[in-house]
Amino acid sequence: MEIGLIFKIAAVGIIVSVIGQILKHSGREEQAFLTSLAGLILVLMWIVPYIYDLFKTIQKLFEL
Questions:
Q1: How many CB atoms lie within 10 A of CB 20?
Q2: CA dist 44 to 1, 17, 20, 32, 64, Å?
Q3: CB 31 within 8 A of CB 21
């Protein structure tokens, strides 16, 4: 895994948490939830290829 990906995930987490807090304090809990959901989906889209590679590697390890 690249170190840049970890920094991207951390940046998204910080930005989503700040925006979520601002939205919650202004009384827009629905938009705060959708912002959190969008951040989660974005991060998952970045991580899924690495998880796929992990499972492929494990499958090759146990093939006969």
A1: 19
A2: 14, 17, 19, 18, 32
A3: no
Confidence of residue 63 (pLDDT cuts 50, 70, 90): confident
Instruction: State the total domains in the chain.
Output: 1
- Domain of residue 57 covers 3-62
Task: Report yes or no: 38 and 19 within 8 Å, Cβ to Cβ.
Answer: no
What is the H or E stretch that residue 14 is in? helix 3-25
Tens digits of per-residue pLDDT, 7-22? 999 999 999 999 999 9
Q: Kindly report whether the global pTM for this prediction surpasses the value 0.85.
A: no
In the three-class reduction of DSSP (H, G, I as helix; E, B as strand; rest coil), residue 58 is classed as: helix
